[in-house]
Design brief:
Blueprint lengths: L1 H19 L13 H8 L49 E2 L9 H6 L10 H17 L8 E6 L3 H11 L5 E6 L2 H12 L3 E6 L8 H10 L4 E5 L1 E2 L4 E2 L3 H10 L4 E5 L11 H4 L3 E5 L10 E6 L1 H8 L12 H12 L11 H14 L4 H21 L16 E5 L6 H10 L2 E2 L1 E2 L9 E5 L3 H4 L5 H15 L5
Parallel strand pairs: 1-12, 3-4, 3-5, 5-8, 8-9
Antiparallel strand pairs: 2-10, 6-7, 9-10, 11-14, 13-14
GO molecular function: alanine-glyoxylate transaminase activity; L-serine-pyruvate transaminase activity
Protein name: alanine--glyoxylate transaminase
Keywords: Aminotransferase, Pyridoxal phosphate, Transferase
Length: about 475
């Protein structure tokens, strides 16, 4: 009997499948080529309408009928208001990630939504537009990018899109992270020249001018704040020098530890690219690579002789997607993180609620207070010159008989988390104090005073006297 029942069940299922699958809709074989596969994936955006992906022959976003897309999602909650309260925790004062505002963290709890829904597309579009204001740019030919990844992904964007294998790049060396940028460029075949400065300082303008006069460089890279040393590189005069001596050279800034706490006037200073990340002074959880490129840099991408040397990091793949999102039109190449984009939207809304100049001034005032306290303790900074000291972090030499491995746990017990040293030449000789975002701009938190007192007490417990 069992075989008979089995055959009957199989026959019933087959008939049921035939009813559900009309003869006019035969099973479609997945295409073998990448363009075809991506086209097939993208059909959920607007059925029977072509969608702008990097692989379409022609961009026709205005013909997409967005009325076919899902409307705004709604969800009924059991309570009418949601109050965010972070559990007690040690204050995180490292050079990123930093402490986050309650409203930013609450944005991360946004309910799940499609990355091509009208509500999310609107949020993402506003986020990209706000980045233009953060970078102080009104140049319509410039392009912001927000991609899932860390700040390091910004290096790959530059190395795989703006520079072709065999082209020369001048890297201004100020520490661990400028070294990393140079390594990334070499991976993609760039011919890298490093102009290194002694630990705790930066190359001089005279040294940069000499290097630019000796060779033609496709790009010059400068780490605005090297997080390993707290050294701040000046951008305005540097950019003016490059434009004068080597006007075709692209000026690229690693702004991972500087954007939103150090002034960057993108248009006025004639910069070509700034790469950064979400988790530092911008004040959004880690996971987003944020970058901004000039019209001249975008032309360099368009005029490449060879295809970009990366797939996910290809600006040719991402540019039409970013343009569409900013124009509030759905598009798809790879899935973004809606929750992180919501958090970034909240963070940028907070930042731009006041003039950015006030934000820079607030960071400078807090930095001055911290650096005076460090000096009063008889301690020295890695960056010895005041005009080369970052305003969002401070790298502090330890007293001779104090070890970071002993001091940092004491600070943690006092509710303050500092970072150890990472520069290979001096790693065990110093610690790093990050002071960015709400920790210095919200006067009600008291994070800075708490950290300074903890440092004083911790050093005293280890036998140090100022």
């Amino acid at each position: 009997m069992v075989p008979e029942v089995s055959r009957l069940a199989y026959t019933s299922r087959s008939a049921f499948r035939r009813v559900l699958a009309p003869f006019s809709m035969p099973r479609q074989k997945a295409p073998d080529n990448p363009a075809g596969r991506l086209s097939l994936i993208s059909r959920h955006l607007a059925p029977v309408y072509p969608i702008n992906t990097p692989y379409t022959v022609e961009r026709i976003p205005d013909t997409i009928d967005t009325s076919l897309l899902p409307k705004n999602q709604t969800r009924t909650l059991s309570t009418t208001t949601i109050k965010m309260s972070q559990p007690p925790h040690a204050t995180l004062l490292i050079p990123g990630p930093i402490e986050f505002d309650d409203a930013v963290l609450q944005s991360m709890s946004h309910f799940s939504e499609s990355h091509v829904s009208p509500s999310f597309v609107a949020t993402f579009g506003e986020t990209l537009s706000m980045l233009r204001k953060l970078f102080q740019s009104t140049d319509s030919s410039a392009q912001p990018f927000v991609l899932s990844g860390s700040g390091t992904l910004g290096w790959d964007l530059v190395a795989s899109n703006l520079v072709e294998a065999g082209e020369d790049v001048l890297v201004l060396g100020t520490g661990y992270f400028s070294d990393g940028f140079a390594d990334c460029l070499r991976v993609y075949g760039a011919n890298v020249t490093e102009l290194k400065a002694p630990v705790g300082t930066k190359p001089t303008l005279a040294e940069v001018e000499k290097a630019l006069s000796e060779k033609k460089y496709k790009a010059i890279t400068v780490t605005h704040v090297d997080t390993s040393t707290g050294v701040l590189s000046e951008l305005k005069d540097l950019s003016a020098l490059v434009h004068k001596v080597s006007p075709d050279t692209l000026i690229i800034v690693d702004g991972v530890c500087s954007v939103a706490c150090e002034e960057i006037d993108f248009d006025a200073w004639g910069l070509d690219g700034v790469v950064t990340a979400s988790q530092k002074a911008i004040g959004c959880p880690a996971g987003l690579s944020i970058s901004f490129f000039s019209g001249r840099a975008m032309k360099a991408v368009e005029n490449r002789k060879t295809p970009p040397a990366s797939y996910f990091a290809s600006m040719k793949n991402w540019t039409p997607i970013m343009k569409n999102y900013e124009a509030k039109k759905p598009s798809y190449f790879a899935t973004p993180s809606p929750q992180l984009v919501h958090a970034l939207h909240t963070a940028l809304s907070q930042i731009l609620a006041k003039p950015v100049t006030e934000r820079f001034a607030g960071h400078k005032a807090a930095s001055d207070k911290i650096k005076k306290a460090i000096s009063d303790l008889g301690l020295k900074q890695i960056a010895a010159k005041p005009d080369e000291q970052a305003h969002g972090m401070t790298a502090i030499y330890l007293p001779e008989n104090v070890k970071g491995a002993d001091l940092l746990p004491i600070l943690a017990k006092k509710g303050v988390v500092f970072a150890g040293g990472i520069h290979k030449e001096i790693a065990i000789k110093y610690i790093r104090f990050g002071h960015m975002g709400v920790s210095v701009l919200d006067p009600n938190r008291g994070d800075v005073d708490k950290a300074i007192n903890a440092l004083k007490e911790g050093l005293a417990e280890l036998g140090y006297k100022a």
